[in-house]
Amino acid sequence: MHKNKKIISGLLIFLMMIGFGNISLAKTGNEKIDWLVEKKFVVGGGDGDLNLNGNLTREEAATIIVKALGKESLAPLYQNIENKFTDMNAKTWSNGMVNAAVEANIVSGYPDNTFRPKENITYQEIVVMLVQVKGGLTEEEVKSAPWPTPYILKADQLGILDGIKIDDVKAKITRLKAFEMLYNTVAKEDIDEEGLYSYKALVTEIERVHAIDENELGLVILESAEGNKYSVNDYTRARFNNIDNVDDLLGKVIKVKLDENNNIKSYEIDNSYKYVAGLVEFKRDEALLMGDTYDILSEGSLAKANDKLHFVYHNDEKINYNDLYNKETSDFARITLDRDKVIAIESFDFSKVEPIEKVDGNKVTFTDGRTIAVDGAIMLQDNSLVAADLKDVDELNVGHVYDDNKLLISNKIDLKGKLDNVVSRNGKDVVVKIDDKEYKVSNKFNMLYSTDGEEFIVLDSEKAYDDIYLLRGQEVAYGLDAANNIKYIVSSKVQNEDFYIVDRALVKEIRLIDSNGNKVEFEIDLKSKLENSQGKKLELKDLSSGDLVYILKDGKYIEKLSLVKDFNGIKNSSVKVDKDSQGKFTIDRRYIANKDARSFLFYEDGKELKEVKALELEKILSNASLDSNLRVFMFSDYEFDKLGLSKNVITSGVENRINLFIFTGFKQTTEGTIEELVKLRYDFKANYDDEIEGFIGEEPVRIKLDKNTKLQNLAVGDYIKVYMNSEDKIVKGELIFRDADKFIEVVDVDTSSGKLIEITVMENGKAKSYWVSKEHIELGTAKKGSFVKLHLDNEGEVDIILVK
């Protein structure tokens, strides 16, 4: 009998706790507990003992939370429904309540698929339940630390733990602490002194996809309290201020508070719903994404609000799901899930997916050279959509074009890792593995490859397997498209191989000129392989100055040297460089220069090569004097691949795409430069000094030489005419007078009209007269009896007079 009394007593207390009694409890003096009593979340009778120091079972905790959320009416409907947990069934009094808690995504049970309803709940377990009530955790938060740490931190952040001290998260919680946590969770939402309406709503419309104001949201109510303005399944528009990520709210479920005029006073995203994105395959009544299958109940069905599909947008236009289903696959879609049911879909098909090279206003140029005028852009950033300002778009962001002139941008770029392998599945799909992660190559959009991040080579799936396979083990940067397919790879520029020009070859050593114009030396050993373009063996003595070679090196030693073209072959294969309509030198339009193309400049003296310089292609063309006999030897990607010069470098393989130029017959232009006459203060040593120091008039000057400028040796007191570019660097220098030159006597001058027209000097004992140029420079005053040095221009007229 005593045992039965204890059972009845315990049951009575429980009935008081979950509200099956009708007798009000006296106030406890605890503000939080009294509020729960007032709201009838805790009711009872008798002596009013709530057993606050006792424990709470897991089924009691689920029941009280369901009651506090206003979902108690679901319990009778769910009582006879099969429970997901193996230790729950229709005969368990709490089956309906636990089912309702599962429906609300509040409880998930244990790994063995049990719920253990009679066990007393721990601090950490009820914290998890209450965090789920507040929207749960994001995927990033879940991964941030081992369970249950992220939930404890979130609970503290949300105020659930206000006034609660936890010594051991694994300990059984008392009813008092459990009730106080429940108050902290629900009271702030339910108490609203301003009279605001609280809802759970699905965002179904934003200005990008529907004709509403840019500061409005279209909402469908999923949950509503009794007495609210809107009921479940109602539609309304709500106005907002200062929401930065409006584009990302489409398809999100939010907990929102509205005033009487439908102004949004506060909102938060409900993360108890799942939001996933990627390449989606649509079936008649299900969607397949990343190996998972989700049910789709048609729009307009009689299913309850949280079960049915509410909308489908495709390329910003609202469509019927059947139209999407008939397409079978979207290139990218975002879907909203209530457990395993799809309730919202935003889908895209793209006409182009390509890295962005540059942005100019609303014009976007891609790495394939094509440009479009963009009318609206959104960016996928950390799996969220945000409105994109094109001026903030970085180079190599992946642009996805839809509706011809709209852009979805992925900023999943500049990722780093080691290329592990490339595998082909079923002879069709190609998968690139980087740092043990697998990335699929899109079967619809080409993958790209680059060695410098500027020049991109198109690689379709089949070629990607053949060529990228050779780059295993290299460190690469890469970018992903919206669907997480690998879009491009940028390998580290190959440092151990390149083109060189032979400067001098000895028996065991060779001096070369690299693509920067530097002279470098290498040695050969027994492992070194030297061959000509036909693959025949060579020795260093077979090489001459000016020969073009391709070197694979290992430190200071040559691993392989290939003679690409000898000096005479380069000259004989050279073609005349044409001029454009403005008379400027230009490469024939049939040829395209790679962005990393190397350019060399040969200076000759008769048939002998005197000097080799490395110079940018455009600089050679723009700085060549119009009277230059400019010729060029060009080496294409096709020739590079045909000769098999490298196993690591991938080229386009195109005949008219040029990766190396060698020019002859160059003369420096002085057009657009500033001319000055300088008297040297110190000697100048060619190929050693990079500046001159002297005087312009009385003013001391120090002037740098452009890196491609060539001057002869000069001495103190020499006069030179220099031509300076916009950077005040010397691009050309001309010796006018040597200090050692003799002065000659002036015997007569003709100064008609006040200007010097003719000057007569005594040369070798004979008088000789010269016309004086109208634009001559006179350093001093030339008159009868003075001693001078004269400089003549191309017309034989005196253009510079230096008076002693």
Structure commentary:
The strands form 9 sheets. This protein has a 7-stranded mixed β-sheet. A 7-stranded mixed β-sheet has the order 22-21-20-25-26-23-24. The protein is α+β, with helices and mostly antiparallel strands and 804 residues long. Mean pLDDT is 86; it is low at 1-24. It is built from 15 helices and 49 strands. Helix 3 crosses helix 5 (95-103). It is elongated.
The shape, in one word, is elongated
Report Rg. 42 Å
Which structural class should the secondary elements be placed in? alpha+beta
- Distinct helical segment count: 15
N/C terminus separation? 138 Å
Biggest sheet architecture: 7 strands, mixed
The largest sheet has its strands arranged as: 15-14-13-18-19-16-17
Flag low-confidence runs: 1-24
Tell how many strands the DSSP assignment holds: 49
| Oligomeric state of the chains present here | single chain
Range of strand content: 35-45%
* Percent in helix: 10-25%
- Mean pLDDT rating: 86
